[in-house]
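PROTEIN DESIGN WORKSHEET
SECTION A - STRUCTURE
LENGTH: 255
TOKENS:
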């Protein structure tokens, strides 16, 4: 049984996706922590895409717009779907905040996109979180306020939301072999867009995250004790060795 996995693409600007509305992408999931990020829409949405007017129109009639996950019709967005995915609260610099807020926001946004019918969303991360444990005035925030791997966390959350368990995949293959390909993974691809990050760095992040997610999926499948997996101590030994390789050399794990 083939193991499905979304194709991961990466860009450093939405401008590179100007033709996404007529391409394979079918939703734009925007993750942000401050409402001002969305209010200053002209700074995060290029004029060529034509989304700013949609956002401005909704702000004019709805005071709660942008404060909770939502799917908005926007002609300039891929698939005409603009998915808002705010983090809980009013930012990421409180003494109780950590990277899990980004994880939860991505999960909520990708889930909304999937329920709306998307299979190839763009995951847009326009807002950089705090990069150290102090605010701009030198005030100590929290020892846990480490966002150094926030992009990896966001992408892992999207991949986890797309994941279908081994038991369900085996059931789909047995009951609907002709249509199981669309049922065994919720997404076909994820296009990650992170401004302010170099192409090389983003490529390294995608490669590392893909390896970690494949290891996580393998671990979760093995723990289900399928008849096709974990059939002997020999298999268990190979699994432990693979997990060690993934943890030590994730950049070398490609399949």
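SECTION B - SEQUENCE
RESIDUE ASSIGNMENT:
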């Amino acid at each position: 049984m083939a193991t499905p996995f979304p194709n991961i693409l990466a860009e450093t600007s939405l401008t590179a996706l100007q033709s996404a509305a007529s391409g394979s992408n079918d939703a734009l999931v925007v993750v942000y922590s401050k409402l001002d990020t969305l209010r200053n829409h002209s700074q995060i949405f290029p004029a060529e895409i034509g989304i700013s007017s949609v956002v401005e129109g909704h702000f004019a009639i709805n005071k709660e717009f942008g404060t909770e996950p939502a799917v908005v019709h926007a002609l300039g967005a891929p698939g005409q779907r603009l998915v808002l995915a705010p983090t809980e609260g009013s930012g990421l610099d409180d003494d109780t905040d950590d990277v899990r807020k980004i994880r939860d926001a991505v999960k909520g946004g990708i889930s909304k996109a999937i329920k709306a019918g998307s299979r190839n969303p763009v995951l847009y991360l326009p807002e950089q979180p705090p990069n150290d444990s102090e605010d701009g005035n030198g005030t100590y925030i929290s020892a846990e306020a480490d966002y150094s791997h926030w992009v990896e966390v966001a992408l892992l959350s999207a991949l986890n939301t797309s994941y279908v368990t081994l038991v369900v995949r085996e059931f789909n293959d047995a009951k609907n072999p002709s249509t199981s390909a669309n049922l065994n993974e919720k997404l076909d691809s994820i296009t990650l867009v992170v401004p302010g990050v170099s192409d090389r760095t983003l490529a390294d992040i995608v490669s590392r995250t893909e390896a970690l997610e494949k290891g996580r999926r393998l671990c979760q499948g093995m723990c289900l004790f399928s008849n096709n997996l974990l059939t002997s101590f020999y298999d268990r030994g190979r699994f432990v060795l693979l997990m060690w390789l993934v943890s030590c050399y994730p950049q070398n794990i490609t399949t």
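SECTION C - NOTES
Residues 7-252 form a domain with the Leucine Aminopeptidase, subunit E; domain 1 fold (CATH 3.40.220.10).
The first helix runs from residue 35 to 39.
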